[in-house]
Design a protein that fits this description.
The complex is a heterodimer of chains A (771) and B (285). By secondary structure, chain A is an alpha+beta fold. Helices cover 28% and strands 24% of the residues of chain A. In chain A, a hairpin with a 5-residue loop joins strand 26 and strand 27. With 285 residues, chain B is α+β, with helices and mostly antiparallel strands. Chain B has three domains: 5-54, Uridine Diphospho-n-acetylenolpyruvylglucosamine Reductase, domain 2 (2-Layer Sandwich), CATH 3.30.43; 59-174, Uridine Diphospho-n-acetylenolpyruvylglucosamine Reductase, domain 3 (2-Layer Sandwich); 182-283, Enolase-like, domain 1 (2-Layer Sandwich). Chain B is built from eleven helices and 14 strands. In chain B, helix 10 packs antiparallel against helix 11 (268-283). The chains are: A alpha+beta (771), B alpha+beta (285). Chain A binds chain B through residues 104-107, 109-110, 262, 264, 629-633, 671, 675, 682-683, 687-688, 690, 692-696, 750-751, 754-755, 758, and chain B through 1-7, 40, 43-45, 48, 104, 186, 188, 190-196, 264-267, 269-270, 273-274, 277-278, 281.
């Protein structure tokens, strides 16, 4: 009856497979209006006048502006600097100014052509260079949203010991999340309560933002997640905005309002991965030991603060890579530009800084004259290693193991030799290369983040003897529901099929925190496991101890534990069934557990010292590829990856996460190129924003390594973001091995390989092969 | 979906005469022959209030027929059907390969050869093969049928020389007199499928016994407002042996026959270099 570690059928699988799962656009609402957004056409300026064509039938429409907002005109997040609707100042193109709604969607869109805004344009800050030059101050005093510094040992003394000092500069671009379902919500008012349903990762974030905007008490707001077609961070904070818009129109019109973005609007207006520059200066001894790491990180935050400080924090904390170095200084900042705010995206700052850290090994290797594998083996984290923040890695450190597993499985060493020979043959039509990268990824929130969140989750036991999981953590394709049910089933000793997972609805479930940061399994799963054990303890007082309980046993216990409805038991509100209908509520007893920090974890936000994350997952990827000599196109033969995630609760889903993250990172490395002009994405369509198709996604050989973590449920750590961190630097290293070209900048398009091939390197120096 | 279904009127003629009558009565109609490009623009709200002439019921235009001189492909034959046809497969492999690289399977199942031509994208994947095979386009109007050499159909980016009221009935491709010594098709797109080409090349080469060029046909797409035959390259190579110097010179001459641009998908420099690489590799056999 054990389900953990087994590939049990996904709870919501049949519904999705049969097309019965209802996404937000599948819901029909009576007398529904469709809301659309009028957006700014300039990157920076002041709104002078808004005018409406006089011969247009505006009486058919409901329009909402900033003046209609009951509370403060702010989307509350870390800083309250972003307005729900711009009313005076414009800080980026595609900034929402007003909302238009109509019973017919196309008529709503048509109205946008009949609204004109006169602006007083101000000079735009479109790049990090322009932002840091301070010619225009967008965010006083210095355009910097946030800075961090990590300091360990004495960097200057470290460089003095070094036999080699290796410098490198790296750049990574925007990346679009490209979930299959665009952002969308519906809002209506029911008995004085504002209800928002939609595609989202974090119902309680929306709850918090709307509470401010509408100035209402908690219970007058209900946020319900509908079946969600992917998020990848793109539905972490943006739903706050679109939910605010839809709810504003619903309040004003008194009718349900749907707002569903089409692909073009979603790509052009919503958040992306932060572009970044990273500089490395590394001191190494001739034996290959790291003695100093000096790293500078700059990220483009876009026009408002949004989540940039936390993205920067994670990027900063991962900037060294999974290596021990006695002397480290990392300085980082994120700055404002007149472009749409950048936000959460799988990896959350880490893929950016780890790209630099890992590709930099190739440079160090060339300087020292040792290969990068040997160098990594010499410096990699082991149990007892001390990180840059001074954290001692006490347990569950699989870095060496994933490195060795991936190297062995991929035949990295022998194939590297074989390809070096191949590349000497001028008659061959391609260059071939093997590249490697190794990363760590902290599971859960950074530093004291989990303490601030104080997440609550648990289980309910009904008078019918049913066990239900209560958490606001969302299923966004990654397997949350199934994984929670497995943890509860095995903790209680009942079959997986008996466990029901309640849909995330702020009216029904406690705030288990956002579905982000590779925390759902490890942190929330841990809370649910604790709660289940409380239930188990109580159950065992009422029914005899057995290796497993029958449904009759549970019903008997329920009769004893839960008095009939007239009694004192809490009456649960009705539960939406998976099909969207309503089920009768049953009396039930709830077991809710709040997060408690493990005693040994200590973190100081001021000095950025201590245990940055409770634990880290580790991944190594080896990329085997070739570059076409005629077209400079890269074809990946295979990606071999080993990933230490503590414990795979559901191995198939974990493998799916690894495959998906790897494919997304192939896009980041080779294809995805956000073309910005005057702050506007020029290729906001799937025809020209190139993500890998099935045919561009290479075969993958995946090994899951399980180094259990004592505070994770069944030893589990995080897996959500880890796979996104590791392939890009391995791909760049393999291209370097194949061509000898140094391309420290993503995406490595064929055009870029061509350009570097025929000219000097883009940044830094490297060997350039002549024609 | 920004296209408004209530604003679209669709005419569905049962046969060619009905279609031509409807079109001559209303020259503003938009003929629909598959719709894989039309629907993208319509979905974006760019084609509101159109009256669409849906040609999907014209069965006669969905046939591939052998003639004495070659093969006649009805304008409504899909890219998928072209790939499956045994005669096309054996006689015109470059066209088959091009059809196999148009979009993805869904688009190949829906999109038609005639629709592709009338759409006149500079990046049409079937155009370089049709160019080197020297196809002829049969155009029908109420005034009758006319045969237009393939290249003369195009007037520019997304523009044809077809007049309102005229419809492409079929494309005729003559059999090659001799088997070419070398032939090639290569699409260089933004990815392996569902991609628009950055450059797309088709070539046919016949050599004499002494290894001099008897005939060379080479065409490129995405390198100019319309697909281009490399006339300067072809005439330069005629009668010459493909020595390294001749191949170098031919690659230099390529520049004269095309006018690639920097755009959202690629750069002028990359397009030129890769096209030259493809030509060089082809001429070197």
């Amino acid at each position: 009856m054990v389900s953990v570690g087994k590939n049990v059928p996904r709870k919501e699988g049949p519904q999705k497979l049969c097309g019965l799962a209802k996404y937000i656009d599948d819901y029909d609402f009576k007398d529904c209006l469709y809301g659309v957004t009028f957006r700014s056409s300039i990157p920076h300026g002041l709104i002078k006048k808004i005018s409406f064509d006089s011969d247009f039938p505006w009486q058919e429409y409901v329009i909402a502006t900033a003046q209609d907002i009951p509370g403060p005109n702010v989307v509350a997040l870390i800083e309250n600097d972003q307005p729900l609707l711009a009313d005076k100042k414009i800080l980026h193109p595609m900034e929402p100014i007003l909302l238009v709604s109509h019973p017919i969607l196309q008529k709503a869109y048509a109205a946008l052509e009949h609204i004109r805004v006169d602006y007083e344009e101000l000079p735009a800050v479109l790049t990090l260079e322009e932002s840091l030059s301070l010619e225009q101050v967008l965010y006083p005093p210095d355009n910097v949203f946030k800075k961090f510094q990590i300091q360990k040992g004495n960097v200057e003394a470290g460089f003095a010991q070094a036999d080699f000092i290796v410098e490198g500069e790296y750049r990574v671009p925007h990346q679009e999340q490209t979930y299959i379902e665009n952002n969308g919500v519906a809002a209506y008012v029911e008995n004085g309560t504002i209800v928002v349903m939609g595609s989202m990762q974090c119902p309680y974030y929306v709850h918090k933002a709307l509470k401010h905007i509408f100035n209402v008490p908690d219970e007058k707001l209900r946020i319900i997640q509908t079946t969600t077609g992917g998020g990848f961070g793109g539905k972490e904070e943006y739903p706050n905005m679109i939910a605010g818009h839809a709810a504003l129109l619903a309040l004003k019109s008194g009718r349900p309002v749907k707002m569903i973005y089409d692909r073009q609007e979603d790509m052009a207006a919503t958040t992306k991965r932060h572009p970044a520059w990273i500089k490395h200066r590394t001191g190494v001894t001739k034996e290959g030991k790291l003695v100093a790491q000096e790293i500078e990180v700059v990220m483009d935050g876009g026009a408002y603060v949004t989540l940039s400080p936390v993205v920067l924090s994670r990027g900063t904390l991962h900037a060294t890579g999974p290596y021990e170095c006695p002397n480290v200084r990392v300085v980082s900042k994120t700055a404002a530009t007149n472009t749409p705010p950048n936000g959460a995206f799988r990896g959350f700052g880490a893929p950016q800084t780890l790209f630099a850290a890992e590709l930099h090994w190739e440079k160090i290797a060339e300087a020292v004259g040792l290969d990068s594998l040997t160098l990594r083996r010499l410096n990699v984290f082991k149990e007892g290693s001390q990180t840059a923040t001074g954290q001692i890695l006490g347990e569950s450190v699989g870095a060496s193991e994933v490195l060795e597993r991936a190297v062995t499985r991929s035949r990295y060493i022998s194939k590297r030799k074989e390809y070096s020979l191949w590349n000497r043959d001028k008659k061959k039509e391609s260059w071939r290369g093997m590249g490697l990268a190794l990363v760590h990824h902290g599971a859960g929130f950074t530093g004291s983040g989990e303490v601030y969140l104080a997440s609550r989750a648990g289980v309910a036991f009904t008078n019918k003897g049913q066990v239900k999981v209560l958490a606001a953590s969302t299923e966004i394709g990654q397997g949350t529901i199934s994984m929670f049910a497995q943890i509860v089933a095995d903790s209680l000793g009942i079959p997986y099929e008996w466990v029901v997972v309640v849909d995330p609805d702020t009216g029904q479930v406690p705030n288990s925190g956002p579905t982000v940061a590779s925390r759902t399994c490890m942190v929330v799963g841990g809370l649910i496991q604790k709660a289940t054990l409380q239930l188990k303890q109580e159950l065992s007082r009422h029914i005899s101890k057995k290796s497993s309980w029958s449904q009759e046993d549970l019903k008997e216990a329920a009769r004893k534990m839960i008095p009939p409805p007239a009694g004192e038991a809490e009456l649960a509100p009705s539960r939406r069934s998976a099909g969207g209908g309503m089920m009768e509520g049953q009396p039930e007893k709830k077991y809710i557990v709040e997060y408690e920090k493990p005693k040994e974890i200590q973190w100081d936000d001021k000095t950025y010292k201590g245990d940055a994350y409770a634990v880290y997952s580790y991944a190594c990827a080896v990329v085997d590829l070739e570059v076409d000599k005629l077209t400079y196109e890269v074809k990946i033969h295979k990606i071999t990856t080993a990933q230490d995630i503590g414990k795979a609760i559901h191995p198939l889903l974990a493998e799916g996460q690894i495959m998906g993250g790897t494919a997304q990172a192939v896009g980041y490395a080779l294809y995805e190129n956000v073309v910005m002009k005057n702050g506007v994405m020029q290729n906001a369509q799937l025809t020209n924003y190139i993500i890998p198709t099935f045919m561009d996604t290479p075969p993958m050989d995946i090994e899951i390594v399980e180094k259990p973590y004592s505070h994770g449920p069944f030893g589990a750590k995080g897996v959500g973001e880890l796979p996104m961190d590791v392939p890009a630097p391995a791909i760049a290293a393999a291209i370097h091995h194949a061509t000898g070209l140094w391309i420290p900048e993503l995406p490595i398009l064929p055009e870029k390989i061509f350009k570097v091939f025929f000219s000097s390197p883009l940044v830094g120096e490297g060997r350039v092969r002549g024609t | 979906m920004r296209g408004a279904p209530f604003s679209m009127n669709v005419l569905r003629p049962r046969n060619a005469p009905e279609a031509l009558r409807a079109f001559s009565k209303n020259p503003k109609l938009t003929p629909l022959a598959g719709g894989t490009d039309f629907m993208v623009a319509w979905n974006a709200g760019q084609l509101q209030n159109r009256v669409v002439l849906d040609l999907s019921r014209l069965k006669e235009w969905k046939k591939i027929q052998k003639t004495k001189e070659g093969i006649r492909i009805g304008s409504l034959v899909t890219h998928r059907r072209i790939q499956e046809h045994p005669v096309v497969r054996s006689m015109f492999p470059l066209l088959v390969r091009a059809c196999a690289e148009v979009g993805g399977w869904q688009i190949q199942n829906r999109g038609t050869l005639g629709g592709n031509i009338a759409n006149a994208s500079p990046a049409g994947d079937t155009f370089p093969p049709l160019s080197v095979y020297e196809g002829m386009v049969n155009v029908l109007s109420p005034r009758g049928r006319k045969r237009v050499p393939f290249h003369q159909v195009f007037a520019g980016v997304k523009k044809t020389t077809l007049q309102p009221g005229e419809l492409i009935e079929s494309i005729e491709i003559p059999y090659l007199k001799n088997r070419p010594h070398h032939q090639m098709f290569r699409k260089v797109g933004t990815r392996a499928a569902q991609a628009i080409s950055k450059t797309v090349a088709a070539g046919l080469l016949w050599l004499k016994k002494d290894k001099t060029v008897q005939e060379l046909r080479f065409a490129l797409g995405s390198m100019a407002p319309t697909a281009r035959r490399l006339k300067s390259v072809e005439s330069f190579c005629l009668g010459k042996r493909m020595t390294p110097e001749v191949v170098d010179r031919a690659c230099e001459l390529l520049v004269q026959d095309v006018s690639p641009i920097d755009d959202i998908r690629s750069t002028r420099e990359y397009r030129l270099r890769v096209s030259q690489n493809l030509l060089r590799s082809f001429l070197n056999g």
